[in-house]
Amino acid sequence: MNVRSSNGSTSRLINNPCGILAGLMAEERPITIDEACAGPCGVLAAVQAHVICELLYGVSRINADSGIVKLTLSEKREALARAMTSILWQAGENKRAIVAKKHNRIVLNSSAVSDILEPDGILEYMTTDNNPSCIFFLYSVIMTHGLEKFKQEMDCTDSHLIGTDGYCSQEVVNLMLTGKAVPNLFDGVVELNSGGSETTILRGIPGQSKIGLLSLYEYQGNCTVGNYYKNPVYPIWIMLADSHFTVLFALSRSILRNKKKQDPFTLYHYNGLAKRHAETSYIINPAGNSSPPPNDRTLPAVICCIHTRWPNASVDPNIQVNENSAETNEEDTNE
Question: What pLDDT, in 10s, does the model give residues 162-183?
Fold first, then answer.
């Protein structure tokens, strides 16, 4: 196992100002995190999903009955702190957490965090814009989990955790969602035996995850996403399409209930792309009987992923709630 990528892009990321905070503190953006530079979308999408989970269903929950509301700077920072803590604590099996940071870069500012959290310099650095806090948070998650555990959970110990152009591996994304650095998306463990004495073990998701994942590659027939990821504890999914990770979520857990007849609901999509139409939403009617043709490449990626979870649903852009654009931008959803 190698943390670095094969082309040395790890050092490039350390020297690149990819902060976790980008976009989150903008007044006009409720709770979105932007990808300010290429590569860290997997880490940022996972953090974004945990932030949403904290705001909608956690200790920091807000009243979202009338939709997503604008939050104060203090509320955003507190949700981000709880989200990052949740990721680290889960990676450390609820026993420990290790934080990686640059020396001599910590600045205490008691007014910058919140009225509840005590300043320790760590959150302040991690949430300061124009610094490489994203890669240091990734290192924190990796070290908290432990390299030996990585080797035990991966199918191939020669894999790189940071790939070409700085993209993080599926193992890293799975670790940030489930606490396990497994490389696959299906449920449980699969054993392959060609008839000889050797058995190949492929490791998937070990149990129901707090946050789920949907993949365009399943729609294209190239992988299988198991029920653990399709039916998470909370209605929040990371969406993987064309090497870009984004976030889908709903405001109510009722959409996860297995009912014969389910009412239409709204799914929100954050694509994480700075200075683009990053926020869109869709009206989902599970009983719409609108199953698309297999491998229809003309559909936006987000709609394809939604159909892997609700195969027969009708999916319509909810133009009225898209504050940043007059119409849905299909190019963005295919990023």
Answer: 766 667 789 999 999 999 999 9
